[in-house]
Write a structure and sequence with these properties.
Chain lengths: 135, 139
Amino acid sequence: MARLVIVLVVLIAATILGALSQRKNGRFFTKRNFTPAVTESEIGHAFGTRGTVLQFSSAFCAPCRAARITLESVVPQFEGIARVEIDAEANLELVRKLRVMQTPTTIFLDAKGIELGRAVGAPKKSQLVAVLEKI
Amino acid sequence: MAQPQQIDARAPRVSAGITTVVLIIALLTHSTWLIIWQLAVFAISTFYSMAKSPYGFIYRTLIRPRLKGEVPLEDSKPPAFAQLVGFGFVLVATIGALAHNWAVFTVATSGCIFAAFLNSAFDYCLGCKIYLLGIRIFR
């Protein structure tokens, strides 16, 4: 009986975590904590005149590929917005500075390199378009 | 770890589903043999080849022929990482079972059921959540 209860508790806990993480996936959150502005040399790329979309990826990350494909197809439709992909593992200093906890994380920067907000998980096209239209 | 390859993206989720069922039965019956079996399955897919995994074989012969549409391919590295994590959990569970320490067995098996069920039911990417955190802590 106790064993059955353990199994049920584990399955319910996993269901709650899974549902929560699916709900938050790809959603844009405006910045709440102060993260310092990044520089062009830190991201190894020039900023866009309106803003920059910074994607953090890592090796064991299946949705990173999906995020890249979405960004590649959507971002060029917006003039003045640069797209940069960063290998999180090779850029730990930047990862710590921007408090990136998991991949894929997409960070939206203004023209000066100050964070406007971020989306964790692979964003959908519609979610991305809604954010970029406001930059 | 096994060499990276392109695999059917649906296979790891089906395998995780079978793993969930096997581990639940192992936990309910305190079966040492079943946990050793699962350890062997994880060992094959982690260190030898994901395509040679017995659960991959079940997927290919029983489930894939019934699925329609194009085969979605993905890199085998993210699921390989998840298999490695599963191997770790089940290794601890096996040691617990062999030592008749059922508390250790139960905690480790529960942890693995948690991860396998999340993977199977929600396509949860374990590597995304913990790999970078691990690197941040240890480097």
